[in-house]
Amino acid sequence: MDRRKFIQTTAGGIAAGTAGMYGSSALAADDIKVGSIHDLSGGLDIYGKPMVDALTLAIEEQNAAGGLLGKKVTLINYDSQSNMQKYTEYAQMAALKDKVAVVHGGITSASREVIRPVLTKNKTLYFYNTQYEGGVCDRNTFCTGVTPAQTVQKLIPYAMKKWGKKVYIVAADYNYGQITSEWVKKYVAEGGGSVQAVEFFPLDVTNFGPTIAKIEAAKPDFVMSALVGGAHMSFYRQWGAAGMLKKIPMASSTFSVGNEQIVLAPEECNGMVLSYNYFQKIATPENKAFLAAFQKRFGADYPNVTELAMGTYQGFKLWAEAVKKAGSIDRMKVIEAMESGISIAAPSGKVTVDGASHHCILDVSLAEVKNKKLDILQTFSQQAPSDTSSVCNLKKNPAENKQFVIKV
To answer: Minimal CA–CA distance to 184: which of 224, 216, 227, 215?
Structure first.
């Protein structure tokens, strides 16, 4: 399946068209409006489209169950087009013109840091549902995705035990890649290993030949990848074409969140080890029911439900539970309900909000890429966001509004 066909397949819930914003249905005056700001076009659409599909399903399920507070929930999609200016524009539109109750959105950390101040200033609740580098501390924001203390902390020791202690890091050149690389260095050092080199790449880079040559010469025991986006998929293609997959194994904190394993050939990515909150092969009744509903809605041939899609689904479910507990969509009442420790039985396992940090306690698994599938190797239950909670306590400091760069 090529990239274009994959993206078309994973856009089952999104209306066709070229407009930057489009709603999922006609709005009634008393509808509860939910904003979605995701990349439905541009270089990051491999992530954004499955996220919107998952949000679409979550809202349809909520409406089928009677809506929220006796009202219909309506989704308004804004296509940010992998453009930071669009993120600002649509965050303002969602808050001021459309007056949504909550925004679920942002993919890269850069996009989050564009959206977050706009929504905080305009008192519109914000959910960032993407796995990221940690450190966001803002009472108006809830981060439902995994952080390095939940995933990288499991991935690096496993990879070092399996393959060896010499590591070469390749990462996206913005705060996600830079900060995650620092966490990788920390866990490598704690395991008695060494990082041979770290290389950062802008999101539009597609030529990785010189770097692959450097890696081959360095002979690390494994490569750790924190590459991001459609352009960076070229690294894995060039890695496979150079015959490197058979020589040097690889772990990644980002691979498969855009379903790269579906687009790439097995010889370009087989054997890669990953760590996330959600994998489609989780064997629980909740996940079985979720997959049945998802495939009924979007087709039995839907390639794979991603970590980011599940984070978005769970983010909405957490918000809906908080609305029900608060008996209101009032922003501060919902925040207080979330801070009480809202918990859901999700397809990925139990998900509980840590009220002090506004992050989530989650199950985390290791998995291996094998013939376009992700096979679970090991699961760690109820992992706390200990990196962010070490610097962020919004119960003690409710006026805090920043992203901490956590010293590692």
So the answer is: 224
- Is the CA virtual torsion 179, 110, 352, 375 positive or negative? negative
- For 341-361, b where at least 16 C-beta lie within 10 A, e where not — what string? ebebebbbbebbbbbbbbbbb
Decide which of 232, 252, 272 is a domain's last residue: 252
Amino acid at 287: N
Q: How far apart are CA 239 and CA 88, in angstroms?
A: 36
pLDDT (tens place) for every residue of the chain, 408 residues total: 444 444 444 444 443 333 344 444 456 668 999 999 999 998 888 899 999 999 999 999 999 999 999 999 999 999 999 999 999 999 999 999 999 999 999 999 999 999 999 999 999 999 999 999 999 999 999 999 999 999 999 999 999 999 999 999 999 998 899 999 999 999 999 999 999 999 999 989 999 999 999 999 999 999 999 999 888 889 999 999 999 989 999 999 999 998 999 999 999 999 999 999 999 999 999 999 999 999 999 999 998 999 999 999 999 999 999 999 999 999 999 999 999 999 999 999 999 999 999 999 999 999 999 999 999 999 999 999 999 999 999 999 999 999 998 777
Residue 69: DSSP 8-state: T
Kindly report the backbone phi and psi dihedral angles of residue 266, in degrees, each rounded to the nearest multiple of 5, phi listed first.
Answer: -55, -35
Partners of 79 in the β-ladder: 38
Domain span at 85? 3-146+281-363+383-398
Element spanning 367, H or E:
strand 359-370
Question: Do 18 and 123 fall within a single domain?
Answer: yes
Burial of 216 (0-12, 13-18, 19+ CB in 10 A): middle
- Domain total of the chain: 2
